Amino acid sequence: MEKVKIGLIGCGTISDIYLQNLTHTFVNTEVYACADLNQDKAKEAAEKYGIKHTWTADEIIASEEIQIVVNLTTPKDHFQICRQALEGGKHVYVEKPLSLSPEQGSELVKLAEEKGLLLGGAPDTFLGAGLQTCRKLIDDGFIGEPLSATAFMVNHGHESWHPAPEFYYKKGGGPMYDMGPYYLTALVSLLGPAELVSGMTRTSFKQRTITSEPLFGQIIDVEVPTHIAGTIQFRSGAIASMITSFDVWSSTLPHIEIYGTLGTLLVPDPNTFGGPIRLRPAQGSEFMEIPAVHQYAENSRGIGISDMADCLIHGGTPRANGQITNHVLEIMHAFHSSADSRRYVELTSTCEQPQPLPYGLVNGHLR
Ligand SMILES: NC(=O)c1ccc[n+]([C@@H]2O[C@H](COP(=O)([O-])OP(=O)(O)OC[C@H]3O[C@@H](n4cnc5c(N)ncnc54)[C@H](O)[C@@H]3O)[C@@H](O)[C@H]2O)c1
């Protein structure tokens, strides 16, 4: 099996599951080198996962061997590292959000196109068994025409568990830029691209106190809205109501629900790969639990990179591609700019609904 060589930049909290899957689950990827500003972290990751080289980010980008640069740094560094990697002739996959602004996101999409390189980004949870089964149910007409949807991501932020949570309250953070990508990528993959957004925002707590180690007791000044409510109109005509919040201690709101002409679909947590999936047809008296029929119900972070590797070997367009991540970035930005301007925002970007994954895949394979 041909393997695509990966250079991974940013060996922090989320890197472990990527490294696990890119070295042990997916058969078409080889992590050839890793880098972190903190060299100890890179060395630890290299030892744990048998990675040949610990280099600097510059060395990874300059290497003739590396084909895909995987950028798992924090949001403020996404744009600059992605641009440098594309300019250096590398295909790029980046954690969410693609960049801090739609202008930066569009610049990366354009640069990748000009250079004939692949650009993609997180999340790839929409390729998991749960959301792929939902896609199949919608495509096969089980709820008729989707008319509307709700999407809710509410919690009290990450300062109680993340070892370095400051970035969640700085530009590029906040609940929309942090968690919106899961919900919006799921909605776009199920309903197609959006065209119009309205939003309202507030910053309910101006400071946050870190209660996790090692920074216990440190205060974070909050620079971004932490409660965002709004509406999205999709090109299909469907309308979604959405709340993302770091200001809510507890709630009973569902993750995503889709309401169609013939029934209602309860979509699983889009920050996971599995179920549960529930369906209630118009004439039904209760919700039925639907088994997740596709592969990849476990934490398969990195499947988007394996899909990109598959496209390099066999041709095609990666499903978690630059167009969709950039479209999602523009939607997230639009919630905020609509609130600032007190007007609807018409989106300028669009994307294709990504191709579904086939049935019956063997674990670790995408064809
Ligand atoms: N932590 C999670 O549960 C989680 C889940 C999903 C996605 N993400 C996303 O993953 C990204 C990283 O999050 P994290 O939680 O792993 O953050 P983190 O702070 O734990 O790790 C980031 C790492 O990147 C390194 N880094 C930063 N700039 C660098 C540079 N220029 N060159 C080399 N290394 C650099 C840092 O030293 C650090 O080790 C973020 O975009 C976040 O939104 C995180």
Automatic annotation (TrEMBL):
GFO/IDH/MocA-like oxidoreductase domain residues: 132-265
InterPro entries: Gfo/Idh/MocA-like_OxRdtase_N, Gfo/Idh/MocA_oxidrdct_glycsds, GFO_IDH_MocA-like_dom, NAD(P)-bd_dom_sf
Superkingdom to which the source organism belongs: Bacteria
Pfam short name (any one): GFO_IDH_MocA_C3
Gene3D superfamilies: Dihydrodipicolinate Reductase, domain 2, NAD(P)-binding Rossmann-like Domain
GO molecular function, one term: oxidoreductase activity
Keyword Oxidoreductase: yes
Domain Gfo/Idh/MocA-like oxidoreductase N-terminal: residue ranges: 4-119
Keyword Protein biosynthesis: no
Keyword list, A-Z: Oxidoreductase
Protein name: Oxidoreductase
Organism: Paenibacillus bovis
